[in-house]
Specification:
2 domains, single chain, 8 helices, 75% helix, 170 residues, mainly alpha, Arc Repressor Mutant, subunit A
């Protein structure tokens, strides 16, 4: 497989996976390492002639599992949260915009952390990762209808925690 074929097969999904990992609080270096391991595992599957029906879902699932494995081993939950808050999550042109954006993410993180982990994961996959309900269902091994229901309930719960403040547009 040459580089052009590889880019056609999965290159389009790798940026989405990387961006999602960063939003899941992975540092840039950790996200790169996880992405590299994900690509390696994909290539091993291709070499073994394993059939992967939905490449995007497969890549997300492997990357998410690797992410959880990595942070489970480190057992540094507080450090992960601090790292999340320190990242520049948007490109901003003024110091005021950077501060406002960081504060918005801190508030959103506080609200998201009040949700059950499955609800938080589904919302992040949907709105940060840009995945469809079908792709989320494939990654989480749930029925698509269950994912839709869980996403609806998570949004409702998010809005009730928020009390009409930060996340009115969801």
């Amino acid at each position: 497989m040459n580089e052009k074929q590889f880019k056609q097969m999965i290159g389009q999904y790798l940026d989405d996976v990387f961006y999602y990992l960063r939003k899941m609080t992975a540092s840039k270096e950790d996200a790169e390492d996880i992405l590299q391991e994900t690509v390696y595992r994909y290539l091993v599957c291709m070499e073994n002639k394993e059939v992967i029906k939905d490449r995007k879902s497969w890549l997300f699932r492997v990357a998410i599992n690797l992410y959880y494995d990595l942070y489970r081993k480190r057992k540094r939950r507080n450090e992960i949260i601090e790292r999340f808050m320190r990242h520049d999550l948007w490109d901003a042109t003024t110091p005021e915009q950077v501060i406002l954006q960081k504060e918005t993410w801190r508030q959103l993180e506080k609200i998201l952390n009040q949700l059950p982990s499955r609800s938080k994961e589904i919302l992040l996959m949907k709105y940060v990762g840009g995945l469809t309900y079908k792709e989320i269902a494939s990654i989480t091994s749930l029925e698509e209808s269950s994912v839709k229901t869980m996403a609806f309930r998570a949004r409702k719960q998010l809005l009730s925690i928020n009390h009409g403040g930060l996340v009115d547009d969801i």
